[in-house]
Amino acid sequence: MRRRGLVLLVAGALAVATLPAAASRAAARFESPYSCGYCLFEVPLGSGSMRVVWGNPQVSAVGELSPNRRQLLFSRAEQTGGEGLYVANLDGSGARRIATGAHGRWSPDGTKVAYERPMPFPCAGGALWVVSADGTGDHRVADCSLGAAWSPDSRQLALFVVSGLNADVGKLTVADAADGSARTLGAAQAPRDLVWSPQGNRLAFDDRPDASPPSGHGVSAGGLRDFPVPELRVVGLDGKPVGVLAASSVPVWAPGGDSFAFDHVDVAVATGYEVGQFRHSLRLASPEGRTLRTVRERCCGLTRWLPGGQELAYLDEGRTPKPHETATQVFVSRPDGTGRRQITRLLPGGVIDGYWFAPDASRLYVLWELTNVD
Question: Are 305 and 251 spatial neighbours (Cβ–Cβ below 8 Å)?
């Protein structure tokens, strides 16, 4: 679940839409250029105008939208301490508390939510729990969990059981969402970004491999010479390696499972203690982890596939309504990089925390956070 952010949603299917002019007159520093600072907007991708769905909710964090894009998850601080996890309509109405915890993730069928509860030291992760979307059947699945991902059939959860001060070492695990029975597939160093293939037969994730031989300082026993750039791994459900992509991370499977998009580190320079990652590109790989093509150089962030898998969406610097200024915007292109078009045209001063397409690709929802407006 992403930390509290302002939401801004701007887009036209092939055209660029802007927010109402009256909302763009920001007079003071740190004042939102829009009618709300923390908002959820809906923008039709055909004809029609943008509208605020939820403005300035009093919550700790807004999380995922449900698979049918009719509900959302959010967490809110409790008076007795900790956080409560809630399900609500997109406009915040009908909110109901379903569990004690945060970082909720919808199951693909929309009937269940996996979430985390804090655990005491030395556990580096949280306790993984599952609850029905109506708040019933709350039960524990795993301890010291990090990065849980639902299987396509909503019956299992892949996760890392982590240890170390910074979750440095993780055991890749598949657990039954109903009874918590689990099996370990293998180990990974500082694992992140775990995703399940649409066919349910492979898992992709990124980690930071050990130096050989280990020396100096670092995350593993014996230390690393330098903190390396991540590498992306694809494994089968038996834990056997399928493919490895060096200097790569953040896999995003296409809906049909015939490829996945990923972030590639094009330039990395050792700075002494760490490795600085200075230039990235968006690339496409086969299910076996073989690079197919570069979609966009010097780009991108928060990649998503549009429903149907015919186009990719991603964040990149783009035009704003202000002359000679740029800001992070949502772009769409074909998987080969052609047909690129800017979907949003947001004013400077904020960041996009998340965005989601409706199942029929008729609407876009964008979460935007105010950071600074001059």
Answer: no
Longest dimension (CA), the chain: 61
What's the CA gap between 66 and 356, in Å, rounded?
Answer: 10
By three-state DSSP, how is residue 99 classified? strand
pTM: 0.84
Per residue in 5-59, pLDDT (tens digit) is: 333 333 333 333 333 333 333 333 456 777 777 888 887 887 777 788 988 778 8
Q: Which residue has the tokens 């991603």?
A: 314
Token reading at 162: 């982590």
**Distance between CA atoms of 237 and 159, rounded to whole angstroms?**
12
28 contacts: CB under 8 Å, gap ≥ 6: none
Q: What is the pLDDT of residues 85-119, one digit of tens each?
A: 999 999 999 999 999 999 999 999 999 999 999 99
Cα 139 to Cα 144: distance, rounded to the nearest angstrom:
15
Amino acid making up residue 229 = V
- Cis peptide upstream of residue 213 (ω within 30 degrees of 0): yes
CA distance 297 to 116: 36
Domains located in the chain, CATH noted: 190-320 (2.130.10.120)
